[in-house]
Specification:
Order of helices and strands: EEEHHHH
Shape: rod-shaped
Structural class: alpha+beta
Number of strands: 3
Radius of gyration: 35 Å
Strand content: 5-15%
Length: 123
Amino acid sequence: MKKGIHPTYYENAKIICACGAVFHTGSTQKEIKIEICSQCHPFYTGKQKLVDTAGRVDKFKKRMAAKDEVSKVRKGRKVKKIARAKSKMSDEDKKPAKKKIKKDAKKIKKDVKKEDKKKQNKK
């Protein structure tokens, strides 16, 4: 080895953790400060919390059920036409048209319920 090009090696270097634990090892630095060690790490101490993925699945199922309920109520082209017409109208035009939209939506809901009853009777 060439002299003067290598850093000095300390055989008894101190490693100090944030929890207060002190270890001794060989290093090119006299003192090393660390945030976490094997004495305070949750994995090694057995205090690790596992993420519950079952909750995610339940949330997804709830969202899908809600989406299915909405799709039962909002079926067909009529609802889409009403929505498009509503979005194209100005604020002044929307006021008198709201009653018509509500009536149309009620009719559509009734039609959907009738269709569902027919399907159930056929089974």
